[in-house]
């Protein structure tokens, strides 16, 4: 066991005991731990205490804390260690959707729909809470392994709250998932973070189906990194994608993708329209469509919002 407090921040902690390292992210690392007071397992994200990251970290905590939803990893508490700020949250044991899709080489359409439905309910709830996620991607979508795996969104590091923070204007997110208006946003120009989230959900659907990025091509791998990025961003701007020829996808599903991957945000399908689309509503479990409004009413009554 490493005694260095920079690498092992839970060393000697009265409440949490480290189980193992889970992942290393851009701003820090994530460990699996046990809450000794309850025996419950948690994931703890450690972010180095420094000035530069504080803007995003503050948003991550303020926004994430308010989001209480079956498809969002619940934030439990925030505490400080000698070198880190620690965010303790619900532990999702099934890995992330990126790993699942990479292993599968592309999910069957009905499995992709199952995850997509859950994703849309999670993002719809965030939007109704006034939070745009701005980093919707497979790696930020965790799995809980039950008979049919459930998803839980985990990362609100780039999220934006419409009530307390200015309109989104910065180019945050992950390049392959960026909407055209986010790429072309210039200084001082803002975009609708919610519509940009809709675009990223479309990219997620494409990746789930094909295990490839819609605006990347296998032949790009021969290009230099900067050139690869340039080519991909140009394809996003001109919405230049097609499904791999060997992948069989229903016309309804192609229609939904076509309505999501629209360059002009005002012409793009909305969250509410997605939830009425024929492909989306197929095999939707009973009562699920009412879940968000019931949750929001409950939370409003309890004064959570
Ligand atoms: P990145 O910049 O790579 O996205 P990040 O710093 O934004 O990382 P997160 O996305 O929140 O951090 O977490 C990184 C990874 O840690 C996740 O992809 C997942 O593998 C693991 N992880 C995070 N939270 C949890 C959790 N609650 N339960 C289980 N694993 C988790
Ligand atoms: Mg992340």
Automatic annotation (TrEMBL):
One of its GO terms (molecular function) is protein serine/threonine kinase activity. Coiled coil: none annotated. It holds the Pfam family Pkinase. Signal peptide: none annotated. One of its GO terms (biological process) is intracellular signal transduction. Residues 16-280 form the Protein kinase domain. It comes from the Eukaryota. This is Protein kinase domain-containing protein. It comes from Elliptochloris bilobata.
């Amino acid at each position: 066991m490493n005694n260095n407090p920079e690498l092992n921040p839970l060393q000697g902690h009265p409440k949490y005991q480290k189980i193992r390292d889970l992942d290393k992210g851009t701003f820090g690392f994530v460990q699996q731990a046990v809450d000794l007071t309850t025996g419950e397992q948690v994931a703890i994200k450690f972010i180095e205490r420094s000035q530069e990251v504080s803007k995003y970290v503050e948003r991550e905590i303020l926004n994430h804390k308010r989001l209480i939803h079956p498809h969002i990893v619940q934030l439990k508490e925030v505490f400080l260690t000698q070198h880190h700020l620690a965010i303790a949250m619900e532990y999702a044991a099934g890995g992330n959707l990126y790993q699942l899709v990479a292993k599968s080489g592309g999910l069957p359409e009905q499995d992709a729909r199952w995850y997509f439905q859950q994703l849309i309910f999670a993002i719809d709830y965030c939007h109704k809470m006034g939070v745009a996620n701005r980093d919707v991607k497979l790696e930020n979508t965790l799995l809980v392994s039950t008979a049919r795996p459930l998803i839980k969104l985990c990362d609100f590091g780039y999220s934006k709250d419409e009530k307390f923070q200015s309109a989104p204007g910065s180019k945050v997110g992950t390049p392959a998932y960026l909407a055209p208006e986010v790429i072309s946003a210039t200084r001082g120009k803002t975009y609708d973070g919610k519509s940009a989230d809709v675009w990223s959900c479309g990219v997620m659907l494409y990746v789930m189906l094909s295990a490839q990025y819609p605006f990347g091509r296998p032949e790009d791998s021969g290009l230099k990194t900067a050139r690869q990025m340039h080519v991909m961003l140009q394809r996003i701007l001109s919405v230049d994608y097609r499904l791999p020829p060997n992948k069989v996808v229903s016309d309804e599903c192609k229609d939904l993708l076509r309505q999501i991957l629209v360059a002009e945000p005002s012409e793009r399908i909305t969250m509410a329209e997605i939830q009425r689309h024929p492909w989306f509503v197929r095999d939707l479990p009973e009562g699920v469509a009412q879940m968000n409004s019931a949750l929001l009413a409950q939370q409003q009554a309890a004064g959570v919002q």
